[in-house]
Design goal:
heterodimer, A: alpha+beta, 5'-nucleotidase,  domain 2, five-stranded mixed sheet, four-stranded mixed sheet, 26% strand, B: alpha/beta, Purple Acid Phosphatase, chain A, domain 2, 5'-Nucleotidase C-terminal domain-containing protein (chain A), 5_nucleotidase/apyrase (chain A), 5'-Nucleotdase_C (chain A), 5'-Nucleotdase_C_sf (chain A)
């Protein structure tokens, strides 16, 4: 049976429903009739929001203090633009990367790396003579690249040496020496020992290069990859922290006949 | 004058049809809405202006200046949407030291509404991004990064809808291919989905199901790739889809002097804009909208 008493309630809902329908159908839709677009450069003539600047201030001051901290002393300017096949800063970076990567590998009981190759383009600044700060490490290595170790067959190390010859760039190199004869790498030695093409060697590099960066395609034939999980910038910072005076080995690694 | 009379009459009769017998008369005659879209991309943790002796961008950029500029524009037109197309993180020690905390804090202060995920926003891993998202007052949208199997689940949505002065605006996000660009250990189980397929679905959903008046795509796909003509980019995205009004791009650090106008798959105009990087510029797009029933097809586009 229909309960007559309920009618007013139903009626109330019906009115509400109608109102709702009316209101929603009132919902307008808009379409663009005119669109304007431009780029606004943010220049020195634009005033600063001082409230925002006050929020930044303590962060800025802290970073400034940290980056300015003196970690070591550097007796001679290290510069990547001086040297045909190798540079003082290149030797320095490859040596430090190899040494500190091996510290991590040793702790993990993993085979040590014999060779280190980085890329010339990845050195973003000189290391000037004088005090070395945390900022120096950021300037040399602003990228977040981390060290990795790739297991390569001796044949790939031959490819690596010939890659350096054909690129004609002083890529940072450690643990590997060779002589260029008629545009070809000969007398390749690993840690002073003649290279054995059949042997497996461990090469420290950056994750960027191991992924084929700078056309280092020989890394694609890698047999194994060990993630060192150590940023190259932090390798430099940790070296500087531990060192009083920066020492660079300027032994000849690539000899041209 | 005649046109005006016609408009008045039409809206009056529409009003009558709509409210028959109920006496509800909240209808007004044709109005114009003005929505200002402000946007940045690839700010990369650049918080301070460039030094005065910088060879490329001397004394340019700086968040405190951008904040003042945005406030000034808001005074002129309060109906603003403030958007960012990704790569908020990475590039200065501010990120290395604080992991993006200050970047997000300042974006909150400036009143950012929506952002999308750039490849560098994964640089401190899923956890690093999540930590900062928890303090964000803005929404993070990404439709083609499936984050269901990561800790980001629930913190990133495919799209959002904003109602500004009665105008319904749908905004969805698109991210660049992760393979080869983002370390697996950083993006973990994030799955990259095809941007064109996803954009097609999103635009349809927002335009036709959600009945949005404007559909905006926040894209970190890149503007275009000269050497890889088939690689998906904003230009191809605009051409291959429909129902998108504006693509705000990033990733390629492209400095467009003015927005680019492309033609979509049904012959309609799409605007694409990208303003370089490092907070050197602020992009501004002004939409003037009128009642759909009164607007003829297509809008006058004035760029530059």
């Amino acid at each position: 049976m229909v309960n007559l008493k309920k009618y007013p309630l139903v009626w109330k809902y019906f009115v509400l429903f109608l109102t709702f329908t009316a209101v929603t159908s009132c919902q307008k839709h808009f379409s663009p009739s005119r669109i304007e677009g431009k780029k606004i450069p943010i220049t020195a003539s634009q005033e600063m929001d001082s409230t925002v600047d006050r929020v930044i201030q303590p962060y800025r001051a802290h970073i400034e203090k940290e980056l300015s901290e003196i970690l070591a002393y550097n007796p001679e300017t290290l510069d990547k633009s001086k040297g045909k096949w190798q540079t003082n800063i290149g030797n320095f970076m490859a040596d430090v990367t190899l040494e500190r990567t091996n510290r991590v590998l040793k702790l993990r009981n993993l085979p040590l790396a014999q060779v280190c190759i980085l890329n010339h383009g990845g050195i973003r600044s000189i290391l000037p003579k004088g005090n070395v700060t945390t900022r120096s490490a950021y300037e040399i290595m602003p990228f977040e690249n981390s060290a990795v170790v790739i297991a390569l067959k001796g044949t790939q190390l031959v490819e690596m040496a010939n890659y350096i010859v054909s690129e004609k760039k002083p890529h940072p190199l450690a643990g590997l020496t060779f002589t260029i004869r008629q545009n070809e790498a000969t007398q390749i030695k690993i840690q002073g020992q003649p290279l054995d093409e059949k042997m497996t060697y461990f090469v420290a590099t950056s994750d960027y290069l191991s992924n084929g960066g700078d056309n280092m395609s020989f890394f694609k034939k890698g047999l194994e990859t060990i993630d060192v999980d150590y940023k190259i910038r932090n390798i430099l910072i940790d070296y500087f922290k531990e060192t009083d005076t920066v020492r660079v080995k300027n032994d000849i690694r690539i000899n041209q006949e | 004058m005649k046109r005006r009379d016609f408009i008045k009459k039409t809206s009056a009769s529409t009003a009558l049809v709509g409210i028959t017998g109920l006496g509800l008369s909240s209808f007004t005659t044709a109005q114009t809405k003005h929505i200002t879209i402000l946007h940045t991309n690839d700010v990369h943790s650049y918080i301070d202006p460039f030094p005065a002796d910088h060879p490329k961008n001397p004394n340019m950029g700086g968040v405190a200046r951008r904040a003042a500029l945005i406030s000034m524009i808001r005074k002129e037109n309060p109906n603003v949407l403030l958007l960012d197309a990704g790569d908020i993180f990475q590039g200065t020690p501010y990120f290395n030291y604080y992991g993006g905390e200050l970047e997000y804090k300042l974006m909150n202060m400036m009143g950012y509404d929506v952002a999308t995920i750039g490849n560098h926003d994964f640089d401190n891993g899923i956890e690093g991004l999540l930590t900062q998202l928890k303090i964000a007052d803005f929404e993070m949208v990404s439709a083609n990064y499936d984050v269901r199997n990561t800790a980001l689940h629930g913190h990133v949505k495919p799209y959002t809808i904003k109602k500004v002065d009665g105008v319904k605006i749908g905004i969805f996000g698109l991210g660049v291919e992760l393979q080869g660009l983002v370390d697996k250990k950083n993006c973990k189980e994030t799955v990259y989905l095809d941007p064109v397929e996803i954009a097609t679905d999103m635009a349809h959903e927002l335009r036709h199901n959600q009945k949005c008046d404007l559909v905006i795509c926040l894209s970190h796909l890149g503007f275009s790739y000269k050497d890889e003509k088939d690689k998906i980019c904003d230009i191809l995205l605009a051409q291959k889809t429909k129902d998108i009004d504006l693509i705000i791009g990033g990733h390629t650090h492209t400095f467009l002097d003015k927005p680019v106008v492309e033609t979509n798959s049904e012959g309609k105009k799409v605007l694409i804009n990208q303003v370089g990087c490092y907070g050197l510029n602020l992009g501004r797009i002004d939409f003037y909208l009128t009642d759909s029933q009164l607007t003829s097809e297509g809008a006058a586009i004035v760029v530059g």
